[in-house]
Amino acid sequence: MSIPESLLLSSNFLVNIGQNTFSFARIRNISEVLETEAVREGGDNWHVHALAKQHSSPQKLTMERGLLADPDGKAPVDLKPGTLVSSVTIMVMQRGSKKKSYYFDQGIVTKWDISDFDALQGNVLYQTVEITHSGLHEIK
Questions:
Q1: First and final C-alpha spacing in the chain
Q2: For residue 119, is it within any domain?
Q3: Which residue, of 41, 51, 106, 127, is most buried by count of CB atoms within 10 Å of its CB?
């Protein structure tokens, strides 16, 4: 059974944060949300009007199992909670070429986590980062 070429396989992800490029194995909560408010108009009984409203909860992006992809010559970004980040771009890569891109203008790191320390298993230390952001958009 062959996979059609039009099917997008999300094989790896590159995330630009500042001047640094990270590689993550999993990114969750990739969505663009518009909250609406239903407003009834007096005398119009057939439908309600849906108006856009301000977000009632923050939008969060969780990036898991990440490593700094290009550490040469750049000071790594400190991704501890409270760090402000701007111009973050997420690129979905397939066979070395960029297939889709998403971005947000500004955000703040709200959670930082690394994998367990276990000297008997010799695992690589991976990083999980959660960022509350201003709104995720797809780059056309």
A1: 31
A2: yes
A3: 127
Q: How far is CA 136 from CA 59, 64, 85, 88, 132, in A?
A: 8, 17, 14, 10, 10
State the Cα–Cα distance between residues 62 and 72, nearest whole angstrom: 25
Match 């930082």 to its residue by tokens: 112
What tens digit of pLDDT does each residue of 39-87 get? 888 776 788 888 888 877 788 899 887 777 665 655 566 788 999 998 8
- In DSSP terms, 24 is beta-bridged to 13, 66
**Structural domain count of the chain:** 1
Can you point out the beta strands (E) in the chain? 12-17, 20-28, 36-39, 49-52, 59-68, 84-94, 97-114, 127-133, 137-139
Considering the domain boundaries, does residue 92 fall inside one? yes
